[in-house]
Write a structure and sequence with these properties.
With 71 residues, the chain is an alpha+beta fold. Helices cover 41% and strands 14% of the residues. A two-stranded parallel ribbon has the order 1-2. Strand 1, helix 2 and strand 2 form a beta-alpha-beta unit. The longest helix has 13 residues. The chain is flat and about 35 Å long. The two termini are 24 Å apart.
Length: 71
Amino acid sequence: LPKILIDSPSIRMIIFNGMKARTTFDEYLKESKGVQYITVISSSSAATKPFDEKVIQWRKYLTDRKEVKNG
């Protein structure tokens, strides 16, 4: 991933599909400057949030190309 970010400077945001994805990333990699890291509600059916709430959060980050605050 670090090489991909160096070779592709247009990547400005990485979205993690749930906390497990984020914690796994944190175990093995470091954040790169200039890239925004966001953790959203897991799309897994095991996640306890209602589907509609997941869609709202995912859509927020996938449709807005500006920098957004995590949360």
